[in-house]
Design brief:
Number of domains: 1
Strand order of the largest sheet: 1-3-4-11-6-9-12
Structural class: mainly beta
Helix content: under 10%
Strand content: 35-45%
Radius of gyration: 18 Å
CATH topology: Jelly Rolls
Number of helices: 2
Number of strands: 24
Distance between the termini: 46 Å
CATH superfamily: Jelly Rolls
Shape: globular
CATH class: Mainly Beta
Order of helices and strands: EHHEEEEEEEEEEEEEEEEEEEEEEE
Largest sheet: 7 strands, mixed
Bound molecules: 4-deoxy-L-threo-hex-5-ulosuronic acid, zinc ion
């Protein structure tokens, strides 16, 4: 069993505008989320949000403390959210087993000592996409399925942005210190997410795109509204959105993505909107 962890420092928007494709990808794109029987993590210095994935195949995979945290247990001063995008799985938290199926989430509170992940069937493994943030209060661990989620219908087919936003780890559903997570599903024929787009300098955000057909891609947009850039993304890749950046994408087919946020305010709606005809 292995943990792969890398560290990403924060970028200033004045620097970002001079980046070429390679440098943009190096600093913002996270290409490898799932590797069999491995904990894959990226420690970002955007609100210290960690982005990663666990895909248990042949064994139970344990979340082990990493040297970067200098903590006895991974979650001593952190909270964690996981959403399963694969087959049926289990998350074992301090000896208690939670069954987490496809599109289901679990919130794991700070001071938890042990966390491990299992798949029900190695031929159809669970894939837990993970976000973890610093936390200074221990809220209870809670499973959140689609029946507990707060579901929003957004957009319209005329503007190619008809989508369902499943707010899973949101303050009306589960108590967290700063983490918010959910999953947005684009309807067939709709390809634009988060359009009209927005910023929220109180919080950073990370997007994880999946259910992207192998011969298709998603063009993700970032930057201040007057200075946008794009990153072409493939299936099961994540992208970090700094507090100064909008985050929106257009696919060559419909797709699904998980959004996760950290920082100030647990108010999902406190966004500053940018109309399409204001973008540059
Ligand atoms: O701050 C909130 C996030 O950017 C996403 O939840 C937006 C989103 O899923 C969408 O509009 O499709
Ligand atoms: Zn946002």
């Amino acid at each position: 069993m292995t943990t792969h962890i890398s560290e990403r420092f924060a970028v200033h928007s004045d620097d970002y505008k001079h980046y070429d494709t390679e440098k943009l990808r190096k600093h913002f794109l996270i290409e490898n989320i799932f590797e069999a029987d491995t904990v894959q993590l990226t420690y970002t210095h955007y609100d210290r949000l960690m982005v990663g994935g666990v895909m248990p195949v042949n064994q139970e995979v344990t979340l082990e403390p990493v040297d970067l945290l200098k903590a006895e247990h991974f979650l001593d001063r952190r909270e964690l959210g996981a959403i399963n995008i694969g087959g049926a799985g289990q998350v074992i938290v301090d000896g208690e087993t939670y069954s987490i199926g496809n599109k289901e989430a679990i919130y794991i509170g700070a001071t938890t000592k042990t966390v491990s992940f299992k798949s029900a069937d190695a031929a159809n493994p669970a894939k837990f996409y993970i976000n973890s943030t610093p936390a200074h209060h221990a809220y209870p661990t809670k499973k959140v399925g689609m029946s507990e989620a707060n579901v929003l219908q957004m957009g319209a087919s005329e503007t190619c942005n008809e989508r369902q936003i499943n707010q899973l780890l949101i303050s009306s559903v589960v108590q967290t210190c700063q983490l918010q997570m959910g999953m947005t599903e684009l309807k067939p024929g709709s390809i634009w997410n988060t359009m009209p787009c927005h910023t929220h300098s109180r919080r950073m955000e990370a997007y994880f795109y999946f259910n992207v057909p192998t011969d298709q891609a998603v063009c993700h947009f970032m930057g201040p509204a007057h200075e946008t850039r794009h990153i072409w993304m493939h299936n099961e890749q994540a992208v970090v959105s700094p507090p100064w950046s909008l985050h929106s994408g257009v696919g060559t087919a419909n797709y699904t993505f998980i959004w996760g946020m950290a920082g100030e305010n647990l108010d999902y709606n406190d966004m500053d909107f940018h109309k399409p005809n204001q973008l540059k």
